[in-house]
Amino acid sequence: MTSNKLYHIGFGKDELGKSPPTIALLSGDPERALIIAQSYLDSVTVISSNRGLNSYLGILPNGKTLLSTTSGMGASSLSIVVNELIQVGIRQIIRVGTCGSIQEHIPVGSIVITNAALCRQGAANDIAPIEYPAAADPFTTVALVNAARDLGVKYHVGVTASVDTFYEGQERTDSANPHLMRSLQGITDEYRRLNILNYEMECGTLFKMASVYGFRAGCVCGVLAQRTIAENVILEQKSIAIDNAIKVAVRTAQQWIEPD
Hints:
By secondary structure, the chain is of the alpha/beta class. It contains seven helices and nine strands, in the order E-H-E-E-E-H-E-E-H-H-E-H-E-H-E-H. It has helices at about 30-40, 75-85, 120-125, 140-150, 185-195, 205-215, 240-255, and strands at about 25, 40-50, 55-60, 65-70, 90-100, 110-120, 155-165, 195-200, 215-225. It has a five-stranded mixed barrel, surrounded by four helices. A hairpin with a 6-residue loop joins strand 2 (about 40-50) and strand 3 (about 55-60).
């Protein structure tokens, strides 16, 4: 008998039950996917822990089935997971991530809702040309904003720099490699002047995949670093930022009504 489980995510349509979810909350960190499942879902089932890409199926308070799953770090891993999620019937993906602010008015602990991305990612170039826009689904973006307003979460909406690397690509010099290529020196100031809000590492590829494949995608990230002050992650406010992003994503999924 041939298994319908997909190779990387470790599950197929059969594992999603008689009322399969169409919405997935996608976290880079498997611990975040677990927190969503344990804190916000009922009747939770672990449907896969393959390759550390942990996936949880559960029920929201309004009875809607939801998938909380893991992309791993970076766009290349995300591209594999997203491709397979679409194969099992997912039609809307909300990335629940973390980011570093590059604007003074965006503090640690708040959230950024991305409406489009400056995409510097190799994986995205395999999906569509460099010039192809990396834009979030507008209906999903508005729904995320409305959820943040309802919850009283401080939010910011705008363009994100979605890059492949955490250190060099985000112009960090406090690392094993302080010698950045000339093309990266000063790039954060340049992005700041372009009114880009933040750095993260996945949403550009997610948005391009959504447009090409034909599904809805959004992104909400908790702000863990304020790059106008320092390069480091502010661990003391990490849980606040992540909790805010999760709350907004879960509320969006629960209240979602597919537009006509």
